[in-house]
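pipeline/complex-builder :: batch 7 item 3
reading input block
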Amino acid sequence: MSLFLSVVSVGKAVEVVRGIAPPLESGDVPLENALHRVLAEDIRADIDIPGFDRSTVDGYAVIATDTTGASEAIPAMLSCQGRVGMGSADAGSITPGSCCYVPTGGALPRGADAAVMIEHAEQIGDDVLVHRSVAPGENVITRGEDFRAGTVVLERGRVLSPRDIGVAAAIGADRVTVAAVPRVGIISTGNEVVPVTATPGPGEVRDANSYLAGAFVTERGCRPVYFGIVRDEREALKAAVSSALDTCDVVLVSGGSSKDERDNTAAVVADLGEVLVHGVALAPGKPTIIGTARGRPVIGLPGHPASTFVVLVAIVDHLLAAMRGTAVSRRTLSARLKQNIPSTRGREDYVRVSVRDGEAVPIFGKSGLLNTLVQSDGIVRVPASSEGLEVGEEVEVILW
Amino acid sequence: MSLFLSVVSVGKAVEVVRGIAPPLESGDVPLENALHRVLAEDIRADIDIPGFDRSTVDGYAVIATDTTGASEAIPAMLSCQGRVGMGSADAGSITPGSCCYVPTGGALPRGADAAVMIEHAEQIGDDVLVHRSVAPGENVITRGEDFRAGTVVLERGRVLSPRDIGVAAAIGADRVTVAAVPRVGIISTGNEVVPVTATPGPGEVRDANSYLAGAFVTERGCRPVYFGIVRDEREALKAAVSSALDTCDVVLVSGGSSKDERDNTAAVVADLGEVLVHGVALAPGKPTIIGTARGRPVIGLPGHPASTFVVLVAIVDHLLAAMRGTAVSRRTLSARLKQNIPSTRGREDYVRVSVRDGEAVPIFGKSGLLNTLVQSDGIVRVPASSEGLEVGEEVEVILW
């Protein structure tokens, strides 16, 4: 097939990568290892939570109507039947006119329907003076009020946060079924690329892309597998991609910043499978290649790290999310644009910005500079339909 | 010393935890394992980046003045001296009236000071017609333009992002010096608390706090060490805390939701060291205990997970950041309040909210409910100096 397809929109490129995301296995992990994993099955409450009516305060379990009209001046007097111990299997019972001391989280005795805070009561011998009335249900959580047995509490596709892990524990999910961690093969190509440990000679640059891509996919819950630097030779690159396909779920080939090199990457993908996209209406990031081989996505990234990063954010992120069975999660911020951003209709531009006091300041420096990656706080997307954004406009900053 | 100190402000509590954060060792790790670690030393560029003048386009390296006045109608004609190969040690040289093909990222030949995009040139035999003039420096990044040798590129205290990892690779940092990962001992206490694997009997609840706290500290770059559930008995708790202090840098004791239990935790901290704070003007989260023992912080968290989480966010986060030698990093969002939030002056309130279309909707449900943790998107802080926040007010939501 032709390697010189027409340039596609970012939206189309995202649709293509979503379409080729291979389904992954899921498996059980212990809950304590499940942070940031993607739930592959709903988690339901196994029992009513809480399993019993409980007090939310330190105080006295009462029958609410016994406190009607109680005030500082005219307290209600109740007879104290004892104390509920934390975790005790039987909280006993109370009858009209009586109450029982209950600690925060303690079970209400049978018959009680509210709790009076200790600050609003006064114990004198076996009697308790209640200085404030309470309504039925006040200071109490009833059985199943938090979660009813059988309710879906955490849905499939959710990336488990610390809160979710805590809630999962409460509903008895000591093991959870999560999507597998995608293995992402990472290959750097280019005759000019040397290892990070080397001092680049004239015309050479260090392999920043492998590290950048590796850290990016790690942050998104994937496992990078590094296949090192491959010279810009068709058979060498083919062997490396083929080897990566043996063990990985997706392969990223970065580099090939010159046209010859880009064509080489596309040719290798075509040899091993099919090139679906060669060129995206995206700046920086136009030379992106999207293909499949042996049922797995192979993505060609631009050679310069700053461009590669935009492609990772704009396109690869969607692929990884689709493989994990979840939505792309982005930190965004609204800010006012401090300067015009000119753009070209028909191309999606990603402009690095720094954000100060609610204002987004475009960093226009040459896109080939790494220092803009460090100095910026995020990127602003200029849609393909726009000829630019104007100073003062409210923009959404995708935070790094 | 007294266990019944007066309640302190959240600001004071944060100051106290920062003051007792123990200094941790730092050490070297391979760059590929350094994501989200905290830099313990500045990273400087070891050499000029790039190490040579390079083209940012596929095209022709030229002497800019040779193109002055060039246009579609009247192109400049230059003699092509050949091609620069990617990574070749010598890019050769050009003289006035000549040019040389150079790929994106390729080194400029000596004498050249600009590059003409291939789209604006036409090669005919050994001659190249240039259809557009370029200024000196156009389409070129000069040696050291990105980073000068010796410049600090990434500063101590920075939490390494994927971008930072990529940039560190470019400047030769194959190993980086990072702060140690704090070891956080986690103990759950309370006679009512049963393991996640158990089905709670009457009056019992599962140990959600250990999982919640463990996941929270993991997300903040710390390693949780679980010491299980301890009954609410002074000697048992003392033994557990003491054992945690043997191997951990900080100990979190969650639980003790009732007053008796809270006093027990405080008494144990006093036995082993010193209670510095017993009670914070924070809702939920008032019963927080801050102490030290054997030079390490021991923090008593409230018994209910929803309250524990607020204390983790409002106070413990600052302790962990201080131990790692970095700033607290928060995702925040500005939103308009959809409803009034009443509050009490002198106490900092944290109210869970869900955010929809730029509006923050307070979730007032009882603070003892876990479902509000799952349903909310973050919390709004009502400062101690305020009697509440009003509908329509712009508030900062601390996103979960």
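note: Helices of chain B lie at 10-20, 162-170, 208-219, 234-247, 259-272, 305-324, 371-375.
queue -> next item
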